[in-house]
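Tokens for chain A. Residues wanted.
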């Protein structure tokens, strides 16, 4: 007899199929193998005691503070530990209960349905300016077109082009200057029909620039202001473009001046949820969300968002993460911008593991290799005990 401890990240369905489990049992058993940790804030103490007993009755559990059983405090924070199947059971069981458990039941039902995306896209970055934080991403006119063609050959799924830096304390650029920088590149893309080979994204929040890009065959609008401008919403709707809604506290000129949050995860989630509703009110249906790593965030904020990406899957949108060569890496391991590829890959692979499906990168080829290896590990179909 041999015994081997399996990873919690094992591909449960493939493992069960390879074991020869009956087809109907695969989904049932797989749901029991997928465990969730759910932090519940400000639950009425009566609800916590009911939920604790209901959880225990089905093999799950609820971690609560001391004194909960005697209602020492009127509201408590707690952590639910349950498999997907147990979440489904609790979501039905709590529907008839008081103390806010009916609303909690709906949330548990949503969480139980969350599935991490299978498709991963690489978005290459091309900057048509002189002041982006990484000079390896700066290109002008025909040089930019050559870089685009190289990224296509390297396997980019999307290429994101911007003419204004959004790094901390970046100078403000006029609409006229932004158009002057980006127009020659847009014209080359349109003339050579490069949009037939790869999807193009415009990194801008300026309606005049976005309009020209969409006219040139671009199909994605990457807006760091999160669709603040109604005209940008109208343009996305008119051209049936994909909208990337990003969270940012402040502006590029102010965002890193001691950023603070009441509740980071809740604040970012609420912002994105509100802007998604705004986008949908304009008729937009294809929406991507970006939590804005490095945009009005401390190092601890950035790490927390990466670790809690799965929470944002409840918004039912694809998640884009762009931490490529950012200064958060330097704060963990001091390094120059050109030395941060390894740190970038570490962050981006963790983001994929936690639910991201689009990576915005400066290094397409290296990321494609890393993603292929990641996918091979994640979707490994065979499993045998080593003899």
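Reply:
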């Amino acid at each position: 007899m041999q015994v081997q401890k399996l990873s919690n990240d094992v591909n449960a369905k493939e493992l069960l199929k390879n074991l020869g489990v009956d087809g109907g049992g695969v989904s049932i058993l797989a749901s029991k193998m997928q465990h969730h940790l759910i932090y519940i804030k400000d639950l009425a103490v009566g609800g916590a005691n009911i939920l604790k007993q209901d959880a225990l009755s089905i093999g799950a559990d609820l971690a609560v503070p001391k004194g909960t059983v005697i209602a020492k405090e009127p509201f408590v924070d707690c952590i639910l530990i349950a498999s997907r199947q147990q979440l489904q059971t609790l979501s039905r069981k709590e529907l008839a209960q008081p103390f806010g458990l009916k609303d909690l039941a709906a949330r548990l039902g949503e969480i139980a349905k969350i599935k991490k995306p299978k498709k991963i896209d690489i978005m290459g970055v091309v900057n048509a300016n002189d002041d982006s934080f990484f000079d390896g991403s700066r290109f002008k006119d025909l040089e930019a077109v050559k870089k685009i063609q190289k990224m296509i050959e390297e396997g980019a799924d999307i290429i994101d082009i911007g003419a204004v830096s959004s790094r901390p304390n970046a100078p403000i650029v006029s609409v006229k200057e932004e158009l002057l920088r980006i127009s020659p590149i847009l014209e080359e893309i349109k003339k050579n029909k490069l949009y037939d080979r790869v999807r193009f994204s415009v990194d801008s929040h300026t309606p005049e620039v976005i309009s020209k890009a969409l006219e040139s065959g671009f199909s994605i609008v990457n807006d760091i202001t999160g669709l603040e401008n109604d005209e940008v919403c109208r343009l996305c709707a008119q051209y049936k473009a994909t909208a990337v809604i990003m969270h940012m506290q402040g502006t590029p000129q102010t965002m890193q001046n001691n950023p603070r949050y009441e509740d980071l995860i809740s604040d970012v989630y609420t912002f994105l949820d509100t802007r998604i509703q705004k986008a949908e009110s304009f008729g937009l249906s294809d929406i991507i969300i970006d939590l804005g790593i490095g945009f009005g965030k401390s190092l601890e904020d950035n790490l927390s968002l990466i670790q809690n990406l799965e929470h944002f899957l409840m918004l039912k949108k694809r998640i884009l993460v762009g931490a490529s060569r950012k200064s958060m890496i330097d704060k963990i391991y001091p390094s120059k911008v050109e030395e941060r590829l390894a740190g970038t890959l570490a962050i981006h692979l963790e983001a994929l593991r936690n639910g991201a499906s689009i990576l915005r990168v400066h290094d397409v080829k290296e990321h494609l290799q890393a993603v292929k290896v990641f996918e091979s590990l994640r979707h490994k179909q065979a499993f045998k005990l080593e003899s």
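Confidence is low (pLDDT under 50) at residues 381-387. Residues 118 and 375 are 9 Å apart (CA to CA).
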